[in-house]
Amino acid sequence: MSQKTDRRQEVADSVRGIQGEDADKLSRAQNKILQRRSMRLLGSLLYPERWKVAEVAAATLIGTSAAVAVPALVGLGVDAGFGALGGKPWTPFVVIALATLVCAVLAGLLEGHAKAVTPRFAQALVLELRRRLFAHSQRLSISFHESYTSGRLISRQTSDIEAIREFIAAGITQFVSSLLFLIGTVVALMLLDVPSGFILLAGLVPTALFGWWFVTESRNRFRKVRGASASMIATFVESMVGIRAVQAFRAEESRTTEFGEKAEEYRVSNARVIFTFGVANTVIVALAAIVSATLMYVDGSRVLSGTLPVGVLLAAVLYARQFFDPVTDIMMFANQLQGATSALEKISGVLEEEPTVMDPVTPIPLGMARGSIDVEGVTFAYGTNKPVLPHLDLAIPAGQVVALVGETGAGKTTLVKLIARVVDPDAGALRIDGTDVRDITDAELRRTVVMVTQDSFLFSGTVAANIELGRTGASRQDIEAAAITVGADTFIRSLPDGYDTDVRSRGGRLSAGQRQLVSFARAFLADPQVLILDEATSSLDLPSERLVQRGLQTLLKGRTAIIIAHRLSTVAIADRVLVMEHGRIIEDGTPDELIALESGNFASLHSQWETSLGERR
Per its UniProt entry, which superkingdom is the organism in (predicted)? Predict the structure, then answer.
């Protein structure tokens, strides 16, 4: 069992153990698990940069210590100056003045160094996280991407990672510096004057209590901000991806209203965070004023009575004024921490996901695959639903072209998904050349089995680059040869820049038929032993279909092919037709044999198809 599986089991066990208890306890337990998972991710990112972290920590420690010493040195310098004016030697004053200057310069230089180094390694961490998230997202199974919207993934890659970058670049250094300054201030003032130190400590008590409230409150509110942000981005992405449907059905107003609601939720969530911080800032300023006034009154009375030097009063006031600046910084850090923690929880959640279709522990090489397919007693259901394939047996010899026909929901697409190992069967086995697909590595299976769907997705870039996707690193000669073979070369050369023409986003510069021919050229270049065409011509008009049919016949030659098609013009080129109903094969034979069965399903479909062709004429 993998580490990730162990961690998911840990979550399940922890939740199961308190199912009968209070809902708040359940929520707290889940939050603790999420936080541990987030810290593991952060630790794995920081470890490669540990020497940079140590360098920044050393600079921060020395620089903060120097900054803490400055008010004490100023107070001692004032007393030494008064002593010199009263006839004492000037040497102590000069030494203290020089020490103050050195400490101030050292604090400034080291603080600047820490602030210069931290953003650089923060960028390195963020780059690694972006790469890790992108690579892992591509590894995850199709089922994950069907349930986890692209908008949420975009939110992980943008706003969530940016929150982590800000936290590492400024938050951690500022927090460590502020905490050291806070502790150092109390210690320094205690060494100068114990009563003044106790006054400062007394002010720290309400500050700590309020800080605890602030951290708890901001954590909950930041989670809501991240959730609202992801929801808003998801709505935006879905509307832009589906813009044709939005405009076709005049849904602009309803989509705008929905997006406005999501944006308003995001605004309200942010406003609550800002309000929380505003309250915190007000309270801290008030506490700082109260403590400073108390010190001025108490220590001022002692100065007037001659029991406290003026320099100590000055140092105490300076410490009191500076004491609450790091408190504010720590609370700012708490703000950033909640945002970063919330972002880390979501990103670590994606990274903890594992493909539902895993590579075998001990893979079996296929070698020179021939392409025979055997389906033995395969059962498959989506979730807890009724099985789509209750018990299927099927044998397809190598090199045979098989057409799958049947009504929507008959199980055709599920069958080809199993062959391509998009999903695994619940029971039974599916073999290619006698080897169970679960014993074949994903890389080798992808070389052996290629699926072409009706949505011939083309990436932004040139026609040549989109064809090359079939075999990365293919020569220009091989790319053009593949296009010529499937009949795409003529239209490609008629484009403004030929093979170097930019097809634009999603291949929008090409017609549906042209996009399909490019996808056929890509599949031909991949040279698979098994080719699956899932409704590859269903969205084409008749002229485009005829153009694609010629390329299709060339593409299928010498390969095992499985064609899902409602258009019987595509089925006619098959060696064998399988008619499916409720996950079972109810007719099996050549197209001519099934047409001859006048009472059969395929014969009925063929008759309807011929009638529709006559009506078109």
Answer: Bacteria
